Amino acid sequence: MNITVIGTGYVGLVSGVCFSELGNNVICVDNNVEKVNMLTDGHVPIYEPGLKDIMNANMKAGRLSFTTNIQDAISRSDIIIIAVGTPSLPNGEANLSFIELVAREIGSYMDNYKIIMTKSTVPVGTNDRIQEWISSLTNHPFDMASVPEFLREGTAVQDTLYPDRIVIGTHSERAVATLKELHQPLTDQIIVTDIRSAEMIKYASNAFLATKISFINEISNICEKVGADVSRVAEGMGYDRRIGASFLKAGIGYGGSCFPKDTQALIQIAGNVDYDFKLLKSVVEVNKDQRFNVIRKLEDALGSLEGKEIAIWGLAFKPDTDDVRDAPAIEIIQRLLEQGAVIRAYDPIATENFRKEVDSPSITWEERAMKAAEGADALCVLTEWKEFMEVNLTDLAAHMNQPILIDGRNIYGEDQIKDTSFQYYSVGRPGLTNIDGRKTAVI
Ligand code: UDX
After folding, report:
1. CA of 333 to the centre of ligand 1 (A)
2. Which residues pair with 346 in a beta bridge?
3. In the CATH scheme, what is the code of domain 291-440?
4. What does the alpha-carbon distance between residue 2 and residue 90 come to, in Å, rounded to a whole number?
5. Which residue from 55, 354, 360, 424 puts its CA 20 to 30 A from 335's CA?
6. pTM, full prediction
7. pLDDT tens, residue by residue, 140-192
8. What are the residue ranges of CATH 3.40.50.720 in the chain?
9. DSSP strand E in 242-336: where?
10. pLDDT (tens digit, 9 = 90+) per residue, 56-66?
11. Domain 202-289 carries which CATH code?
12. Three-state SS for 250?
């Protein structure tokens, strides 16, 4: 099939590359000339394992190209995928200005029947508006479809090529037939529904996953007080197939480009129809506060943080990405700076992006994890990068001024801690006893 993807952000680029991998001819359009040149030269602007190789192989095979010429791309395609961003407005609502712009361009350049497939996450009813924007500028026939994207950063290629399900929302049988054929190589689990339900499935899925995370984080806070271990609790819950084991990892809360934005947007969508989405509001509240448990634990161990040297391991919102959008590390570091702490930060790949969000003369950006920990009064692990799991903890403790470890992601187990001198705080697990027989306080 001949496909144009408009927008080469996470969703657009990965979808475009993966559709070309399935043998389709794909043109990816972006209005950012620099980005298009970079992609044409075979470079990927995001860190996504596996993406570059597949992209280059398909460009070489002549199935994938990048351009700023939207008119030419549209005229050569039967399916147009809209994958531009929908950032948050100050009230939490999704900003649809990029979507409208693209819809109007599509309307201006339509020259025969096409399927317009929206992959951007858009509020319920937006595809109807896209339809109106396009129809106001063309008499050529077209069908609208909402096909939401569920990929995760860091595993985006895998998620796209092996999805749990594909949701196709459309009112056209012709579009159903074509889009089923397009997605059939990926999965048999194809759900066909109306456009508004498809739009809602995306928000409801993200909101539900965010709810699972806030739920287990609250359970973890209670576990700390009653002496239970949240990782065992989550394991015990997860075997129940009605609950499922995934997204029950307690930590410092969710971040990233989707959950924070989409939960706020769904609260707003509900508010617009006079519905107070109380549960989701609490999920957001719990998430906002969870990250500050790291500070509370630091204060428990050190008292005042004024002048204390705090090492931070991990700045990205999760491992295997350099994305720091809404990363809990941002607010944690800002709060530490407000309290007069001196920061030594390290992340394998996200430092450059992070510095654009927070920078201060009180932060030293280190290029090695051990260097960041050297002489520190405490170390906070904020992202569960694999390299942090593999360090020699005895060595680490010896490098530090005070062996205090706040493990915000529960990456170390009791068997690793018990032979060290660390005063160790984790999330929702009872205080562990270290080599000196010292048990971490429960706060
Ligand atoms: C998410 C959705 O998973 C994906 O389907 C959607 O398309 C986009 O949003 P992503 O933001 O890439 O994907 O990351 P994800 O792996 O879902 O993690 C989101 C956040 O939740 C991270 O900050 C992560 O650390 C946190 N998380 C996740 C937890 O704290 N506990 C968990 O058990 C799972």
Report:
1. 21
2. 313
3. 3.40.50.720
4. 38
5. 424
6. 0.94
7. 999 999 999 999 999 999 999 999 999 999 999 999 999 999 999 999 999 99
8. 2-193, 291-440
9. 309-313
10. 999 999 999 99
11. 1.10.1040.10
12. coil
